[in-house]
Structures are given as structure tokens and as C-alpha cells.
Amino acid sequence: MVDICARLDGLPLAIELAAARIRMLTPDAICARLGNRLALLSTSSPGVSERQRTLRATIQWSYELLDEDERPLFRRLGVFLGGAPLSLVGRVVGLDDELEMLERVGSLIDKSLLRRAEEGTDGVGRIDMLESIREFALEHLAETSEADDYRERHALAYLDLARKRNPV
Fold first, then answer.
1. What is the arrangement of strands in the sheet containing 84-85, beginning at the earlier edge strand?
2. CA distance 93 to 73
3. Any residues with CB less than 8 A from the CB of 90 and at least 6 apart, and which?
4. SS3 126
5. CA-based nearest residue to 134, from 155, 117, 113
6. Neighbour count for residue 105 (Cβ, 10 Å)
7. What are the pLDDT digits (tens) for 96-147?
8. How far is CA 57 from CA 52, 115, 143, in A?
9. What is the value of pTM for the model shown?
């Protein structure tokens, strides 16, 4: 059960929806199916609001509250597995103006779709996205024509960072 809670980012709704699957699946079987948590975690219980019937619906509700400038940024940030230093975020998502990047990232943090992660050893701030939310962001990025472009930008930014830290 600890693995399930950890894989679900400690989100109460996600844990509650996973617990409902115990009637049919063992904890190990649930854990094995969490690769697609947004599809697995749902309920048809009466009295539950539509927005809380699935983890996907809850995240979709938050996504729909974003303005038109925030949605592409949110989707693009899904490429960062395990978070990212702010120094790379603007470069990968195409925000060259640091103040604008900080404002937009700050807005997503305020809306609980991103979080400020621990600072790296170099003192540079980092952002992070819960894996459940990241899965949602990646699904929406995949629906656009820009998915491959942002995956490539991400890979090139980290390749450049690796080369700077360990020149050949």
C-alpha cells in the first residue's frame, strides 16, 4: 500500500479511487496498473460530483481554469520528468524573457499544477510536477503537433548541460 500511495503522489482522491479497486485487485495488481493511472482511477459511486469521479476529471477541471497562455506552457512542462531547474525551463518551453517565464511558472504553482522543488546544489531554483498531473500534461501535449519538438528541445537542453558540466 505504501508503494501505491507513493506512486499516486499522496493525492487523497487518487488514493481513495485506488482503494476502491481493492474489491477486485490485489495491491500488487493495482500498483502494476498505475502506469496509466488516469484510466484506472475512477468511480461510479452515486453522490460523487462529476469532477471527482475520476482523477482525470479533477485535473481537467483545473486545466480548464487556465487561461489560453497558460495551457501550452502547462502541456510543454510535461516533458520534464522529475522536475527541472528554472534555468532550463524557459529555454525548453520557448520563454526567453526570464520575468515572463517566472510569472507564468509562478501562476501554475499558485494553481497547484506545479510545485517549487528543492534547490539544486548550485542554488538554482527547480520546479516539479506531480506524476499524475505530468501524465495528464503529456497526454495533452501528444494531442498537439508540437510534442516531438518539445521532446527534442528537452533532450538538446540536457545534452548541452551535460557537455558544459563534463567537456570532452
1. 84-85, 126-128, 115-117
2. 7
3. 96, 97, 98, 101
4. strand
5. 113
6. 23
7. 888 898 899 999 999 989 998 876 555 668 899 998 899 999 999 999 999 9
8. 6, 20, 17
9. 0.76
Cα–Cα dist 59/41, whole Å: 12
The cell 528543492 sits on which residue?
A: 118
b/e per residue, 66-97, with b = 16+ CB within 10 A? Answer: beeebebbbbbbbbbeebbbbebbbbbbebee
Q: Which three cell numbers stand for residue 82?
A: 522529475
The grid cell for 136 is 495528464
Question: What pLDDT, on the 0 to 100 scale, is given for residue 76?
Answer: 96
Helices (H), 25-146: 27-32, 37-40, 55-64, 70-77, 86-93, 98-110, 131-142
> Buried b vs exposed e over 19-43: b needs ≥16 C-beta within 10 Å?
eebeeeeeeeebbeebeebbebbee
